[in-house]
Amino acid sequence: MDLTVLWFCIVGFLFVGYFVLDGFDFGVGMSLPFLGRDDTDRRVLINTIGPVWDLNETWVIVAGASLFAAFPEWYATLFSGFYLPLLLILLALILRGVSFEYRHQRPEAAWKRRFDRMIVVGSAVPAFLWGVAFSNIVAGVPLDANHDYIGTFLGLLNPYALLGGLTTLLLFFTHGVVFVSLKTEGDIRVRARRLATRAGVLTIVVAAAFLLWTSVAHGTLASVLLSAVAAVTLIAAVLANSRGREGTAFALMAVTIGVAVLSLFFALFPDVMPASNDPANSLTIANASSSEYTLQIMSWVALIFLPLILAYQGFTYWVFRKRVSRAQIPAESTQGAH
């Protein structure tokens, strides 16, 4: 396989991993106003992702570093042209991480409510803006001959991109609520299952509209087939959740998100940043990649370290596989979410 194609696939795999794993973190954070009837409920919700949220978040760091090393031109155009939305995503992730650590530092209810609101915002903003960003990448943006973005921030908020943002927001929310039902016991588990079913129906409608638009306007045969698979697995996930099969529902939601992201990468290939104003200005895997020698070294590094990262991630999830319940949360605690 050509090394540029290989690294396009690796970058795609890393973003799939990030959206699947940090996606349910976002969903749990957004679920606080819906499932957190009191502080104990909210602590249960946060503790479901307490041991893993920061590990899940490292996937975007690895994806960004791989993008920088393998496709520096793509990285430069993306991070300069999409500077404001990516900055907002970064600030939201910082806000969310700080809130997880600080909400328990003082006992006052008002103190905790402020950080709970920041968790919600810090989860919803990336969930929405990642969809906006990737939708614009697939649709194409205006680039000059030097591959610099010549549009505006408001230009990124076009109808197709906004629908893409709403799709990722709802997908991650549903994914997170299904995860809550998988990881909790008692009343909160029942309420999470009901909420996931209601949210799942809305997600099916919005995601179907987005995938249909993508397939018609930007799709290839492979991306259309993958979109169809994503639609089927999403429907199956909602049905499994409604029948109380939480593990199956969560696995199907993970497949849905992963396949949907792959469909966007297949719709993009062989471009990495299409130019909407002039195809000659588009960035492709050929003119955006690093040298052959650089890609060879990176391939050996990935071959050694990627299996280790996956093994460590799997081990972490196995260790923290047990459900969380209200009974495990002391009435007064100074312990964090880890």
TrEMBL record:
It is found in: Cell membrane. The keyword Cell membrane applies. It is a multi-pass membrane protein. Keywords: Cell membrane, Electron transport, Heme, Iron, Membrane, Metal-binding, Transmembrane, Transmembrane helix, Transport. InterPro entries: Cyt-d_oxidase_su2. It comes from the Bacteria. The chain crosses the membrane at residues 5-21, 74-98, 119-140, 160-183, 195-214, 220-240, 247-269, 297-320. Belongs to the cytochrome ubiquinol oxidase subunit 2 family. This is Cytochrome d ubiquinol oxidase subunit II.
